[in-house]
Amino acid sequence: MDLLKRLSYHVLSNNFIKAGKGSSDIKSNLKSIGIDSDILRKIAIVCYEAEMNIVIHSLGGNLHCDIYEEKIVILTEDIGPGIPDIELAMTEGFSTAPDSVRELGFGAGMGLPNMKRYSDIFEINSSIKGTNIKMTILL
Amino acid sequence: MNFNVMFDEEKCKGCTNCMRRCPTQAIRIYKGKAVIDNVRCIHCAECIKICPYEAYSTESVDSKIQQSIKYKIAIPSTTIYGQFPKGTEICNVQNAFLKLGFDYVYDESWAAELISKAIKDKINENKEIRPLISTNCPSVVRLIKFRYPSLLGNLISLEDPMEIAAKLARKRAKEIFNCDDNEIGVFYISPCPAKLLAVTDPIGPNKSSIDRVVPLNTIYGQLYKEVKKQENLCFSNPSLKGIMWAVSGGQSKSAELNNYVSVYGMENIIDVFDEVENGRLFHIDFIEALSCTDGCVGGTFNVENPYVARNNINYIIDHTDENTLQNDDLDKYEEFKNKGIFNLVIADEDEGDFKKHKINIKQAVERIDKIKDILALLPGLDCGSCGAPTCYAQAEDIYDEKSKLIDCVVLRAKLNENKKEEK
Asked: In this predicted structure, what is the pLDDT of residue A30?
């Protein structure tokens, strides 16, 4: 199916002032499109977690929301350092977030597990160059 | 029905104060007068509070209807105890209602204490859904229905104290007066107009047990006169745990919770609900969200300043003898709980309509794009002079053909300048 629209955001590393702005904009756009509220909530969760992961763990990256007639796809691409052991990172409660981030209330080790749980298709690729995540939510 | 927030078009100057204040952007100024969109209105009364010309008011009590009812029951809201000066004989309050012509008084605080216990139990019994959200503020419930339908399942499935007080009061009155249900009229002495909404448009499928809502400030004068009279001295006190409900954080404190978020003010509530939607608050047990400043004491029908009222209530809690409480319903918690009296079934119909309506994503995306095109033409000042609260709202209205581009004063000024230059 054709891509109807792409929303894109640049996400800065370690910037907690702008953190969450992209996912909040995606949410309000999808809300005005009229996406079902339960589906919207799933998108909001995965989007926010993905954006925060870029802020906390990477050197910066991009967040995209692709709108199709039958699905919403959330994509992230970031620059390094990547995830050495993806399986371990997918474990609930496992976190590599530094204490400075945990003090802000982030880094509880639920990011990736929640992203997987709330998306219908979850794809992740990671190398020392960076991490790409693709999350599909069917409408 | 007995609702409404009345609007006096004569008094409205089209000043845009209410339009800007409205948390759900339900107000527009058309032809110099404010117009409320009833679908969007959550009855939070911000417009009433801010209007400098008193164009908004609430309907006063119709005395004829009062007289036609054989047995009149008053349910004073918990905030009433914050309205009297410190040192007032609080034990006179309920008796004062009898002097005003009511036949029976059932204090809302008693029901509030019962609901506090029910909240505590519900949180311990239901660990699946987090956070659970209080149903006490009708504006908040309406906000969830309208703006956060995905959080409907988070509403704690318990009736609010007003409703429980009305149910229990009816039961009591039938025993005392040995009469039928239809001979009884239940009057809620309300701190805010949103309670009117809860009665006319309840969240559950059942009809409210309240018959009329009386704005507290419309009877305060007469009431206070009676409360001051020494000969009215009697010993009927509110529940101290119950009156905590009048202030923000009081529900959670009364329910002995320790892992809760207490928030007031619509903008702040919207921030918190956004966090819930983003899945950031799964670890919180309970959210106590109240529309008005410092909770129900901030409701527009109160007489006293909300912060002073909070102080008064704290004073009462510290200086009242708990042993003079007398309503034995407070001892029947287990019995009521087992009968399911507190349970609330949340009507799903609004959400249902919304869901059944299958959206055409393609058209919706085109609509958003066109609205953004219109937005790009507008100055982005959000000045409100066109009659819409923001340029985005105006762009939507233009797209929906409810307004025109030329309604923008900035664009109009530019156009006039251009015309002058041409001449």
From this structure: 93
pTM listed for this prediction: 0.87
Q: Which of A20, A45, A67 sits opposite B279 (nearest CB)?
A: A45
* CB atoms closer than 10 angstroms to residue B62: 11
Amino acid at A21: K
**Residue A39: domain span:** 3-138
DSSP state of A34: T
The answer to whether B280 contacts A69, with C-beta atoms less than 8 Å apart, is no
Domains contained in chain A, number: 1
- Is B359 in Cβ contact with A5 (below 8 Å)? no
Judged by CB atoms closer than 8 Å, whether chains meet at A27 and B365 is answered as no
Q: Does B188 touch chain A (CB under 8 A)?
A: no
Q: To the nearest whole percent, how much of chain B has pLDDT over 70?
A: 92
Give contacts of A48 with chain B, Cβ < 8 Å: 278-280
Structural domain for B206, as ranges: 63-352
Number of structural domains (chain B) is 3
ipTM value: 0.79
Q: What is the pLDDT of residues B139-175, one digit of tens each?
A: 999 899 888 888 999 999 999 999 999 999 999 999 9
Identify the closest residue of chain A to B360 by CA–CA distance.
A69
Query: B172 is written with which tokens?
Result: 């009591």
Which residue has better confidence, B198 or B404? B404
User: What residue of B is the nearest CA neighbor of A118?
Assistant: B279
- Domain final residue pick, B293, B324, B352: B352
Inform me whether the C-beta atom of residue B354 falls under 8 Å from chain A C-beta atoms: yes
- Asked if the model's pLDDT at residue B1 lies above 50, the reply is no
DSSP β-bridge partners for residue A121:
A136
**Chain A contact for B370 (CB, 8 A cutoff):** no
Selecting from A4, A29, A38 the residue whose C-beta is nearest the C-beta of B150 gives A38
Distance CA B306, CA B246 (A): 10
Shared domain for B252 and B159, answered yes or no, is yes
CA–CA–CA angle B330, B214, B295 (5° rounding): 65
> Of B352, B384, B399, at which residue does a domain stop?
B352
Dihedral angle of Cα A42, A48, A51, A53, to the nearest 10 degrees: -90
The CATH number for B404's domain is 1.10.15.40
